[in-house]
Design brief:
Number of helices: 19
Largest sheet: 2 strands, antiparallel
Structural class: mainly alpha
Order of helices and strands: HHHEHHEHHHHHHHHHHHHHH
Number of strands: 2
């Protein structure tokens, strides 16, 4: 009986569920384990890629920071001790940085971008046409500035070092190659040689920052020119024994170089700032992989939509400003500026700035009344636009506060001082309200026209899955129902945007082409001293000019997306 039972057990082994081990679990557990391992492996690769990207950005950022600190130490040492550290020492240091940046740019153009799969993605938001146009304009002005500098140095070659002629030549070469590089490759999202590309971009960006810092702090050339423009003055410099004089042999040619240099000087600082902003966007885009729906995104076209009052009022503002600017410049070329010229100039601003402030406030209120969704897509260009808008506004705001302190501390009851005080306060308020209006507009979803709804749906059907298409269709229908008629909110926003565009254009033209009453009225210059006020104005004025130019582009974006 026992042997029969043993034989039966041998011929009929127990089933899997009768064993102590879980039924059919090993295979399922093994598959689950393998999937988990693969998932963890892929996740670790993604984490490593992100960590490598962060490490590359950190290293290149630290490289740029150390270079900027070292260059700033050179420049500040030159400002405070021109005997130990001379302008030539600073120019030699910057020339070395330019040559290194040019070497990397040449390597990028000849090798990096030619590698397989180097440029798989391009950022559609980076390098808009108005920024590229400004890059070309200010780059050309910077080249012309260096040509005037070369001519000025050649005329004074008997009392200047021959090495000084070499520095503008290196600057011209640097501007030409850098402008071509940024113009052609501002949208690149480089996918190869990440660390080298990041370090090269940061090297070039640091060089432009130091060139800008030198431009806003070096007043030696301006002092030299101002001294030579005094009648009957023989400018003595670079004379070893102090007995020989340095003067222009041909006063007419010398005056052309002097006036051209002074007129074009602010454009060089603008060029440096534009290059820094575009190089920063390129640095952020290194290794970036743009999603398909983000890559095919197209902005609404620029159309007038029957907007009348904003452009008309803006044209009137521009014509009035040009007339006042011409009168002021005629007075500026004479022996001395009269109080009437300053009063006329500041009165124009006092009348215009409050109107711009009211327009920006009304536009902000209308933005709040609208029911458009906020645009939350990741966009480095838009983030940089907001940073530049806020940072550039600090230039004129800073100058205004310095003027307010100088006026209140001296004689605030004087007529001209009272007008300058009102101008400074109005300028601060206008910058703040306009920034709020622009930032609100940039972060709104653009309104898509009804006639293009079907075409957009056809393009979307090729890219998105069913759920995303339904979501997009729902939002599109909501937009069409809300904006199928050109309602008063959209029209008011377009009128305000177009008016502010024209106002910022004239407020960009006037300081860009020579109207600098904050330095010429003499009030702040006598209060703070020549060198201190020169540094304050040269730091704030280029930022103010850049702010107006940048505001024009952002306001056009707000107009187009409304």
């Amino acid at each position: 009986m026992a042997s029969t039972e043993a034989m039966w057990r041998r011929d009929h082994p127990p089933k899997a569920e009768e064993k102590n081990s879980p039924p059919t679990q090993p295979e399922a557990w093994k598959i689950h384990y393998e999937k988990s391992w693969l998932h963890r492996h892929c996740s670790s690769l993604l984490c490593r890629d992100k960590q490598a990207q962060k490490a590359g950005q950190l290293f290149s950022g630290l490289l740029a920071m150390n270079m900027v600190f070292l260059g700033s130490a050179f420049i500040c040492s030159m400002v405070f001790n021109k005997v130990a550290i001379t302008l030539q020492d600073v120019q030699i240091f910057l020339s070395i940085l330019k040559i290194l940046a040019l070497a990397w740019i040449s390597y990028y153009l000849l090798f990096t971008r030619r590698k397989p799969h180097a440029i798989l993605y391009r950022d559609a938001h980076a390098g808009p046409i108005w920024v590229k146009g400004s890059l070309i304009l200010f780059g050309a002005c910077s080249i012309l500035l260096n040509v005037f500098q070369i001519g000025y140095d050649i005329i004074h070659l008997q009392c200047k070092s021959q090495l000084e002629v070499l520095f503008p030549c290196v600057e011209i070469l640097f501007i030409c190659i850098q402008t071509y590089f940024i113009w052609r490759h501002a949208k690149d999202c480089t996918q190869v040689q990440h660390n080298l590309t990041r370090c090269g971009l940061m090297l070039t960006m640091a060089t432009n920052l130091l060139l800008w810092l030198l431009a806003v702090t070096n007043d030696s050339v301006h002092r030299e020119i101002e001294s030579e423009l005094k009648p009957g003055h023989l400018f003595e410099e670079f004379a070893g024994n102090g007995t020989s004089s340095c003067k222009c042999a041909n006063r007419t040619v010398c005056k052309v170089f002097q006036k051209g240099y002074i007129l074009l000087y602010p454009f060089n600082t603008e060029y440096c700032l534009i290059c820094c902003s575009m190089l920063y966007v390129m640095w952020k885009n290194v290794g970036r992989r743009i999603a398909q729906h983000h890559a095919i995104y197209t902005k609404p076209k620029f159309q007038l939509h029957g907007v009348i009052f904003g452009p008309l009022l803006g044209i009137f503002t521009v014509i009035t400003g040009i007339c006042i600017f011409i009168v002021y410049q005629i007075q500026a070329t004479s022996s001395s500026l009269s109080h009437q010229a300053f009063i006329l100039y500041y009165s124009y601003y006092i009348g215009l700035l409050p109107v711009m402030t009211v327009g920006a406030l009304v536009g902000t209120v209308i933005h709040d009344l609208e029911e458009r969704e906020m645009d939350t897509l990741k966009n480095p260009t838009r983030s940089l636009d907001v940073i530049l808008l806020m940072g550039a506004a600090l230039g004129q705001i800073g100058i205004s506060y310095f003027s307010i302190v100088a006026i209140v501390a001296t004689n605030p009851t004087d007529l001209l001082n009272s007008i300058i005080l009102a101008y400074s306060v109005s300028l601060i308020i206008q910058h703040i309200t306009q920034n709020i209006f622009i930032i609100e507009g940039l972060h709104r979803q653009p309104v898509m026209p009804e006639t293009k709804g079907e075409k957009c749906e056809e393009n979307d059907s090729k890219v998105y899955n069913l759920e995303i298409k339904q979501e997009i269709r729902r939002f599109s229908q909501a937009y069409i129902q809300t904006y199928n008629h050109f309602n008063w909110k959209r029209k008011a926003l377009k009128e305000i945007s177009s008016f502010l565009v024209m106002c910022n254009i004239i407020l960009w033209i006037m300081p860009s082409f020579g109207a600098h009453p904050v330095f010429e009225n003499g009030l702040e210059k006598s209060f703070y001293g020549y060198s201190t006020w020169f540094a304050i104005v040269n730091l704030g004025l280029p930022l103010g000019v850049f702010y107006r130019m940048h505001s024009v582009g952002d306001l056009l974006e707000v107009y187009r997306s409304t």
